[in-house]
Write a structure and sequence with these properties.
The chain is an alpha+beta fold and 238 residues long. The chain folds into two domains: 45 residues; 174 residues, Jelly Rolls, CATH 2.60.120. It is built from two helices and 13 strands, in the order αβββββββββββββα. The strands form four sheets. It has a five-stranded antiparallel β-sheet with strand order 2-7-12-9-10, with no helix packed on it. Strands 1-13-8-11 form a four-stranded antiparallel β-sheet, with no helix packed on it. The protein has a two-stranded antiparallel ribbon with strand order 3-4. β9 and β10 form a beta hairpin. α1 runs antiparallel to α2. The longest helix has 23 residues. The radius of gyration is 25 Å and the shape is elongated.
Length: 238
C-alpha cells in the first residue's frame, strides 16, 4: 500500500508540474519566454523626447488644440517644434496660425516620426492607436529583414478640423491597428501631412503589446488538467 500511495504522490507531482508549465506567466504560471523591451508592456507611445522625427530630430510635446482627441495616459501630442495650439482665441474659436505650410498625401510628408522598439517574446499582440492633424500614413519597418509594411494609408479628405475619417485628430478619428509580432527589432514610421497650411499640426499614438502564450502552453495545461481528473476519478473508485 505504501508503494502504491508513493507512486500516486509522484504521479500527482508530475501532473501539477505539467499543469504549471502550461499556465501562461500572466496567469501566474512559469515564465519561459523573455519580456517585451519596454516599461510595463507599453511599447509605443508619443511623448516628448521619445523617438525622433525627420525635421528637428527631437520630438516635442505641444499645446493641444480643442478639436484634438484626449490621448490615453502616458501619451501626448507631439511634433518637431511648437506647431500646436499655442494661442487659442476664445472669440473666434481658432488657434494662432503657427503650423507648417500645406501639402497633400501624394506629396512629401510634412514630417516623419519614428520610434524603434524590440520584441523578445515568441509572440506579442496588441493594438496601436494613431491620431494626426491633419492625417497620416503608418508603416512598420522590420529592421532585421528590411521589410516595410503599410499599416494604414493617409486620408486626404478634409473634415471640419482635420481629415474626415481615420487617420484624423478627433476623439473617434484614430486608426486602431492590430499588431502581432514575433521576436525582432521594429521601427514605427508615421508620415504626417498638414493639409491646411498654418493650422495646428501634430501626431499622437499609443500601443500596448502583451505576451501571447504559444499554443503548446495551452496543450500542456490541458494535458495536466485531464491527467488530474483521471487520477481523482481513480481515487474515488478506490
Amino acid at each position: 500500500m505504501a508503494s502504491v500511495a508513493g507512486s500516486r504522490i509522484i504521479w500527482l507531482g508530475l501532473l501539477v508540474s505539467t499543469l504549471l508549465a502550461g499556465i501562461p506567466a500572466r496567469f501566474g504560471g512559469v515564465a519561459a519566454a523573455g519580456t517585451i523591451d519596454c516599461a510595463v508592456n507599453v511599447c509605443l507611445f508619443s511623448q516628448e523626447g521619445v523617438g525622433s522625427n525627420s525635421v528637428s530630430g527631437t520630438n516635442q510635446g505641444i499645446f493641444v488644440s480643442p478639436a484634438w482627441a484626449t490621448l490615453p495616459t502616458g501619451a501626448e501630442w507631439i511634433s518637431y517644434g511648437q506647431t500646436g495650439c499655442n494661442d487659442f482665441n476664445a472669440v473666434t474659436g481658432l488657434c494662432a496660425q503657427t503650423g507648417p505650410v500645406a501639402t497633400t498625401i501624394t506629396g512629401s510628408p510634412t514630417a516623419i516620426f519614428y520610434q524603434t522598439f524590440t520584441v523578445t517574446n515568441l509572440l506579442d499582440t496588441g493594438t496601436l492607436d494613431v491620431w494626426a492633424d491633419d492625417t497620416a500614413g503608418v508603416y512598420l519597418d522590420d529592421v532585421t529583414t528590411g521589410v516595410d509594411t503599410l499599416l494604414m494609408a493617409p486620408n486626404g479628405t478634409l473634415g471640419s478640423n482635420c481629415a474626415n475619417a481615420p487617420i484624423s485628430c478627433t476623439q473617434n478619428g484614430d486608426a486602431q491597428i492590430p499588431l502581432s509580432l514575433g521576436p525582432g527589432t521594429y521601427t514605427l514610421v508615421i508620415d504626417a501631412y498638414q493639409l491646411v497650411g498654418g493650422s495646428p499640426f501634430g501626431v499622437g499614438y499609443y500601443g500596448v503589446l502583451t505576451n501571447s502564450p504559444e499554443p503548446a502552453s495551452y496543450l500542456l495545461m490541458g494535458l495536466g488538467l485531464a491527467g488530474l481528473g483521471t487520477l481523482l476519478r481513480r481515487r474515488k473508485r478506490g
